[in-house]
Design brief:
32% helix; 2 domains; 183 residues; binds magnesium ion; alpha/beta; 6 strands; Rossmann fold
């Protein structure tokens, strides 16, 4: 299968690093689980969108982003078993060098640049499956939709929208293995 894999909050914890950075910089005490909207600034009343969204654009930010446990091992196993894996990330173009160097190729060194697709429109990408925490990236796509649980999507009825909800990489591997058998 061709497996498309989102980066932020699917293979690494962007949101955790973001909340930590915003709390430190703006003297807040917001927790990761308080971010109930895709718009992170909604969790920071009193701060502007520009203030909150400046955090991941700051130099050095991406070196504070940590991988999601099990993601690297699972991706490697999927590739070893013959699946084609592509990272598909919608990211501001300014973030690309640090994000690739400080996160993707640091924690996922077995991936190559040939396996990275940068796009703001994931529905244009062809694959059998997309694993993503962003509902708007799954809706309308011509792929099987696996929704990675994150605080901002936990109240969304994935099943009613034809998506398979997962909570960790163990579950993702199981879903992929079931899909591969049925294809
Ligand atoms: Mg994401």
């Amino acid at each position: 299968m061709t497996i498309l894999v989102d980066m932020d909050d699917t293979v690494e914890y962007l949101l955790k690093a973001w909340v930590k950075g915003a709390n430190e910089q703006f003297h807040r005490n917001i927790s990761y689980d308080d971010v109930l909207s895709w718009d992170v600034s909604a969790a920071y009343p009193g701060l502007t969108w520009e203030q909150v969204y400046s955090i991941p654009m700051q130099p050095g930010f991406w070196s504070t982003v940590e991988p999601i446990p099990g993601a690297a091992e699972a991706l490697q196993r999927l590739m070893d078993s013959g699946h084609r894996v592509f990272i598909v990330t919608a990211t501001p173009h300014e973030s690309v060098p640090e994000k690739m160097h400080d996160v993707l190729f640091r924690y996922f060194p077995f991936l190559s640049w040939d396996q990275v697709i940068i796009t703001g429109n994931k529905q244009m990408i062809k694959g059998d499956v997309l694993i993503d925490d962003g509902i708007h990236n799954l809706e309308g796509g011509d792929y099987i939709k696996i929704l990675m649980t994150a605080p901002h999507n936990k109240n969304y009825d994935a099943e009613a929208h034809g998506m398979i909800r997962v909570h960790n990489w163990e579950e993702i591997e199981q879903v992929i293995s079931n899909l591969a058998e049925s294809m």
